[in-house]
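comment on this one:
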Amino acid sequence: MANKFLLIVCSMTLLLQAEEQVEGEKKTRRVTAEMLAANEVLPSVVNISTMQSVTTHVNEHDPFAIMQFLLGQRERSQPSLGSGVIVDRRGLILTNSHVINRATRIIVTMADGQEYDALPLATNEDADLALLAMIDVPPDTLLQAVKFAAPDDLFLAERVVSVGNPLGYGHSVSVGVLSAKDRNLASDGRVILESLLQTDAAINPGNSGGPLVNADGELIGISVAIREGAEGISFAIPMKTIERVLCGWLLPERFRDAQLGIVPGTSFDQRARTSHVVIGEILPDSPAEAAGLKTGRVILEVNGTPVSRAIEVSRALWLLKESEEVTFTLADGETVTLAVIPVPVLSGEDLARKRLGAEVEELTPRMATALGLPYRSGLVIASLDANSSLTRSRVQRGDVLVRIGEVPVASFKHLARALQSVRHGDVVDVVIDRVDRLDHRRRLLNRYLVRVAF
């Protein structure tokens, strides 16, 4: 309690000093909205340093390098720098997935210089986002979570502030404007990141994963990239992507074998410039579905606390355990109380229906011959739901499942093991075999890698 009071007093003092600096009888003109926003967000920003495992390529002309290789030192660690922002006061940090890629150790440094180790909880490489959990944080430490803007609450040319760890210069601030929205980044003709924000605020190596905030100190984006060879063209992942990914992670379904079934979202009215929290998704066979809740309904309160952003609902949900209850007050006056239930143990067939939205059959010799497959065992897709994760990834009826994540699947037993390790919000590599018809007599067996969002 003393630490909390001290932090509040210090924060108020800093803001008062920033707003009321007086030199003689003349009030300073140096205080700006951007300055206040930077001071507000700084306690939520962390510097991230990692040790990354890098494969050693041996120089055949270097005897010392050859000796290291022969002794088993085929990989080495090298440091890497990035940034992150606290999204939950219980030690959750959002950053870019490329910041922690192949990391063997992650260290976060707070604005006051305190250092903590962190562990990855979730990654989404398609969105280039990762969620970390700080560990061994003293229980009386009061962390400050960043404020979230509403998705799409943006003005072109509005002033923005970027905070991060450029080139290792920790907690550096740069100011610019929001130059554009909905920019796509492509590599070799393929879009790798889409709907990005563009800004002329200085972003450099090490800024990746750091916050981009508006003049009210609200998070509008996560710094991700710069345009090589250009000046003043930087990019950030927008809040609509951040919220979609983060709210898909911060659920009881993600952190334990439990079900609640409600994924929140934020609806923003461009004309009225107002926002409200809505039910963004109802998970099948969940308490939320059993209670008759539908997507689009407006949530006013969670456990009696008013909410205006989806992240506020997510912060109340992710730590819920089996049998614990949560109460939602809806805009139409209804109050709904849901209890978290355990996830039932399901067979491979049932998991395929529930998690993949597919009917799967074990391959028979007769079926293999009909499909033109060179092998006699495996799992073939018999049918697909129109809105299933596999359908969205362009998997087809007749495709054969080869691998889900790191688990080869040739039977229902294998399938059950693979799917029980997949959590809501994961994006998983799925390998399939498909027989493509070249003409009425010729067929070609092709292997495809698809990315499936669960």
Observations:
- The chain has twelve helices and 29 strands.
- The chain has four domains: 2-19+40-134, 152-238, 250-342, 348-453.
